[in-house]
């Protein structure tokens, strides 16, 4: 299975390294909006093309992985490139998924391709857990917690504050809230009760630290509704301890069964990820395998993780899966 | 969707109560090998039939849930009743799944029905977690732990020991083993290092307690390879504290990503269940919904949880799922 990568940022690099862990896949090419000469792939010998030549690459690619951002790239790219390829993206603006789905579905069907949108871990694996949980325990409640991990959006926000040279923000689930859910107490939790936010800031020389802290803690939407801690550190400490992009989180489904609803059940799914983009890439590749198979079966249109029978994700045959995994 | 139940034990009763939690389902009838008059369903007005009349019930049932045991009932029943109905079972003898699958698949295809075998939580939800985990982290390791919960087979074994009036056995995962896995240490664990076993025994009057304890702890296959604790208690204490059938467990997938495999990831799925048969029943019903849909689409043959796209489990439409769950 020949995989193409569009966009060679953190996610594209994650896909590149994950392909090496899947024996049935090969990296066909990298496609970029930048000057192809400016890109040096980690994989020796792999070709880099300009996005302007993308239409010519149809024979080289079974599935194209779109590694752009959800704000402006993917709403354009996914429908556009579903004309030429089976495509998969990690579109994560939850509120706009129905619209994105409709746009991609139309083009994919018209052109006989399979597309899969919103793949990764949330949306993605966490969505699957919400769906399985709600289906098997119809009388119950969902909880999703994120972290401990780096929020890219919040890190960007603190770096825009005056006097901030560098910064990183960690989202942290509140331990007491996790415990209450785990015990099946079905707590009603406010935003503040679910997560705290911790910021590590490298200030510019002579910056007003008190003002930076105040600006961050009162920032609407991003921080005002949370208990936020701000730490000022040196660039050296930043480089030593905050270079990674870890993330993770928890999905719970709690519910009751029995004639008198007398029995409680708690389902908990959690991820602890050293590298958010690499794990996302790994999930994407398993679903890329699935849509390649669906395409070979003659299926077309837009799919999500909900539409994929799990057996399609694995390189093993049905016989092997039943013998080893069931 | 009209659901029939064959076998009115713990599992059948669990299915009966779970149907009430699913608005799109109704309990059509209960079928039994006993005298139908000996059964009093919890649901008023529901009809009870003898298994001898089962062929006449085809119009009354969309999916028949087989609630027999894996040792002798299901290997006969599932292929037999796949002649007349869409059927679902909880066959859990892992080693015999390929053979059972082949038997059921042949009959289901010949008769245009959909069957789903080995549904519940292990096999079932845990199998799904092993498959998703291995697919998204191909370089890694699986761990499955069971408990804390009641093992029916081990409880049966201790009740057969001379001098034992009543008994229950709990399987308990070893906390240190869980912690080592959770930290991504990839431990190699022996049987003894993974689980302990705890027995609560009501002895017969005048029984030789030391001999009972010795017999249990040295019982081959069941206890000899484990650290086992035996407690002697009164029937009153047994009734007060050990009447339930709780269970649960953990599935982990740990793995690495990155060009130099420098990033670790830990996926953990756990269940804490007050009632093993009721949770199993709830899982079965969501998959019963799925096979009813597949049947309406004209599909036939034997399936497992691996073959079911998650969207089929939910009463929600694709649009709703994408808007609310993704």
Describe the structure.
With 326 residues, chain A is α/β, with parallel strands linked by helices. Chain A contains 11 helices and 14 strands. The first copy, chain A, has helices at residues 10-19, 73-81, 97-111, 125-136, 152-159, 175-182, 191-194, 209-217, 235-241, 276-296, 318-324; strands at 2-6, 26-32, 47-50, 63-66, 86-88, 114-116, 140-146, 149-150, 164-173, 195-203, 227-232, 247-257, 263-273, 301-303. In chain A, the strands form 3 sheets. In chain A, strands 3-2-1-4-5-6-14 form a 7-stranded parallel sheet, sandwiched between helices. In chain A, a hairpin with a 5-residue loop joins β12 (247-257) and β13 (263-273). The longest helix of chain A is centred in the last third of the chain and has 21 residues, at 276-296. The model of chain A has no long low-confidence stretch (mean pLDDT 97). At the A-B interface, α1, α3, α4, β13 and α10 of A face α1, α3, α4, β13 and α10 of B.
Structure keywords:
326 residues, 14 strands, four-stranded mixed β-sheet, homodimer, seven-stranded parallel β-sheet, alpha/beta, globular
Question: What is the overall silhouette of chain A?
Answer: globular
Count of individual beta strands of chain A: 14
The proportion of residues in beta strands of chain A is 25-35%
Query: Spatial order of the strands in the main sheet of chain A?
Result: 3-2-1-4-5-6-14
Percentage of helical residues of chain A? 25-40%
Round the Cα radius of gyration of chain A to an integer and report it: 22 Å
**Assembly context of the chains:** homodimer
**Largest β-sheet summary of chain A:** 7 strands, parallel
Number of helices of chain A: 11
In N-to-C order, the SSE pattern of chain A is EHEEEHEHEHEEHEHHEHEHEEHEH
| Low confidence ranges of chain A | none
Q: Determine the structural class of chain A based on helices, strands and strand pairing.
A: alpha/beta
Report the mean per-residue pLDDT of chain A as an integer. 97
**Termini separation of chain A:** 26 Å
Largest interface, Cβ cutoff 8 Å: A-B, 69 and 69 residues
